Amino acid sequence: MTGSAALVTVLVVPLAGAVAALLAGRRGAVAAGLLTSALGVAAAFVLAGAVLAGGMQRVAVGGWAVPLGIELRADGLAAAMLLMTAVIGAGIAVYAWRYFGAAGHHDPHDLAAGPPGPAGKAAPASTQWLFWPVWLLAWGALNALYLSGDLFNLYVTLELLGLAAVALVALAGAGAAAAALRYLLLTLLGSMLYILGVELLYAAHQTMDLLQLRERLQPGLSVWLAAALMTTGLLVKTAIFPLHFWLPPAHGSAPAPVSAALSALVVKAGFYLLARLWLDLFGALPGAGVVPALLGALGACAVLWGGVQALRQTRLKAMIAYSTVAQLGYLMIALLLASGAGGAAAGAAGGAMHAGRDPGLPPTGGFVGKFALVEAAVRAGAWWAVAVVLAGSLLAAAFLFHALSRAFADAPADKTSAEVPAAPQLAALALALVAVALAAAGEPLRRLLTVGAAT
Amino acid sequence: MSLALLYGLAGIALVAMGLYAALAARHVLRRLLGLNVLGSGVFMMLVALASRTTGIATRPDPVPHAMVLTGIVVAVSATALGLALLRRMHAHDGSPRLPEDRDAGSP
Amino acid sequence: MAAEVQVFDAVLVVLLLWLGWRALASADLFKAVVQFIVFGLLLSLAWVRLGAPDVALAEAAIGAGLAGALLLDTLARLGRSGAADEARPLGLTPARTGIALAALGLAALLVASALALPERWPGLAEPALQQLRASGVSNPVTATLLNYRAWDTLLEVGVLMLAVLGVWILEAEPALPRPAPDPMLGLLLRVLLPLTVIVAGYLLWVGAHAPGGAFQGAALLAAGGVLWHLARPLSLGPSPVVRAVVVLGFAVFLAVGVATAVLGGGLLTFPPEHAGAIILVIEAAAMLSIALIMVALFVGRERAPSDAGIPDSAADASAVPGAPNPGAAP
Asked: Is B91's Cβ below 8 Å from some Cβ in A?
């Protein structure tokens, strides 16, 4: 399989899986979801191999050259994100398979959801299977987002991802409607600010292709305004402190596999785009170094604020939600390091990848990722970043032990842990193992990340 | 003043109005109206931009027109989902506002 | 197209801004929504003035028509208490003053940016028109939507599909009490429905070389579907048939993408000699799906005795007298 064929396969598999799941209905959706996950992981590995061997892969959709057409590009960062998403996605699929019940007749979530609302009873169990097509569309949107080289196409992928995330949050029932609605309003506002920025860039440069824009970029008021609008829009979507307020309620009320998908993948898509914009496009502007510094400072606040808030929570999901806020802070610090020290860029980005892979609990790869981040920070001489990362890790360790002690103490009374078979735990364990394996395979990953990195 | 500039400025005014309403209003339906007016302003700026081809090409730039068509469809999809969620929130919580916007007394 | 500003344009812009503001600031939400619909209709006049008739059609049908119907339906379902808002919903408070200043600041920066742009620019008009011969259609907007940037449009059909999946995920809601069947409405339907089908088919066909296309045609079909629903309530839950039609447009589009990638020149690369036919097939499938999706978004999910998605029984159930009024719900 050639590189470009692998690229198209990576895009098509989740979308075709969504079609199959929707057609298959309640009984067949699980099988479609699991099969798609397996195929998607394989395709992502093939593409990563092609990128590693042959450099950046490009596909001009429709055969039209930019700026008229849309070009899809897989560089090292994109391939690594695709791989991470496929692996986490497979874990989520295995988890959801047991969580939502194989045939839809048993719904552990209903037991945990508390009293049904006034309108309750009828719907949830019969529509839980819609998780599969919606999740597969979200995965397809993520893959399309990683690969897109066109600013307007990125807007469409962001909307697809945003609506899918809203629908996933809404799976929790009428009690989660407010959280889903808040997320919808914010994600729409973020998209509008983003598209306003795209429009300004197009008006001045007559292209929406990232690489072409980078060559043509003329510094000026409209470019700076566009950068500010797009960054603000994406910060809202990424839940960066102080725009993080929508995340804990949305993630806290969602079904567990959905929380995992949102925390590990959806919010990080916004971060990925921010990194693309500031590393690839706006980084060349004179005086642009201030912005990553500002984002890094926000990141430091997020690490500490998220850590402290996580410690104050009594529910595990709320804890993980705040820990996600902190994780995004680490990513912002990594972005700063990547944009500042050219040589450390790959290392810091590698650290970001690791930190982004799971809720960042110390015994797993998240810890290894933080270690890489500290290493990059030390090499870059950013001692404040070292301090923030260490303080954040201490907070994370504290809330982890807090959570574990509660989990053990409450175990017999917890209905879901008594009824749900071992698959979710196995999925979590497998993910943790993969995380450790990837961390051990740090060298290939680092080589992958340097393919096509902005020079 | 050219046609493009007149409608472009009108689009900017709509953007400001919509942004204000989306952030300041408390009834969710009004926030959604604000986002829609904001979107209309953004789209109007785009179409006004596209009409600046006069004298260069025989027709306006079709790419912004296609973008606006896509944008209108995306906006109505999101609005439809938002309204359905608003009705569920109102049925469940008894209020058409987000929890942080609810006063003790009024709905 | 006329490039000179006429009195008409000045009047239209003033009206648009006034209606836009009233649509946001009217204390009575019903009035606000009606003003929003009129705003959308005037907006389509602005699109015509700016030389964008394709956008004008879509705005009138989707932006004003469908969105307006959805907003009015939601107001009815929220009932008197849910549709009530403050007396001065956008009146200035200290916090809102900050928001207003931010919005004004953004507007000032946008104006400065807009004034700095050159008065004339090529955009992508030239390449788009030059390649028209190879695109399979002669309407440049259709060429952009379904050929140059078909990947955007494929994902956009996915967005529509997601909206209806999101509505299906939500719990069913109480049915609105239906007015007694109106014989006039039945008669109107018998005349209007065939007409919407014919005109929608015409819009689809004509979209290849004149303003029109799948989205505009679908909106018109959807209008017919909504009328049908008002006369004889439909139930469009996730039954197998409904799911198949909803997914059809996306599936055909994606299948064409796969076929072109496997057999031909690459993802969504249409050979020029077949491009016109391929685009027509994609658009026909997309029109059917989009029309059904739009009707399903309007119909929503009303509670029925058996929620298995059997259309007929659900339609009967929603006509049962004494269905709970949402306004009276706790």
From this structure: yes
Crossing angle for the helix pair C150-169 and C272-299, nearest 10 degrees? 20
Closest Cα in chain B to C219:
B73
Asked whether the predicted pLDDT for residue C109 surpasses 80, the reply is yes
The tens digit of pLDDT for each residue in A356-367 reads 434 444 333 455
Cα–Cα distances (Å) from C276 to C135, C137, C205, C211, C272, in that order, read 7, 6, 11, 16, 8
Average pLDDT estimate for C149-163: 97
Q: Which of A95, A109, A446 is nearest to A263 (CA)?
A: A95
Chain position carrying tokens 């409608």: B7
Instruction: Please check whether residue A234 lies inside any domain of the structure.
Output: no
How far is it, in rounded angstroms, from Cα C115 to Cα A164? Answer: 38
Q: To the nearest whole angstrom, how far is the Cα of A153 from the nearest Cα of chain B?
A: 10
Residue C118 has pLDDT above 50, yes or no: yes
Which ipTM was obtained for this model? 0.95
Percent of chain A scored above 70 by pLDDT? 70
CB-nearest partner of A68 from C148, C269, C330: C148
Task: Decide if C230 contacts A25 (C-beta within 8 A).
Answer: no
Check: CB of residue A172 under 8 Å from CB of residue A253.
yes
- Using a CB-CB cut-off of 8 Å, the residues of chain A touching B31 are 185
Other CB atoms within a 10 A radius of the CB of residue A387 amount to 13
- What was the pLDDT predicted at A259? 82
pLDDT, mean of residues A275-287: 84
Contacts (Cβ under 8 Å, ≥6 apart) of C136: C143, C147, C208, C270, C272, C274, C275, C276, C277, C278, C279
Dist. CA A236–CA A191, nearest whole Å: 9
- The parent domain of residue A426 ranges over 1-111+126-147+421-455
**Domains in chain B, start-ordered, CATH in brackets?**
3-96 (1.10.287.3510)
Asked if the structure places residue A226 within a domain, the reply is: no
C39: tokens are: 């705003």
Q: How many CB atoms lie within 10 A of CB C48?
A: 16
Q: How many CA atoms lie within 13 A of A126 on its CB side?
A: 17
| pTM for the full predicted model | 0.88
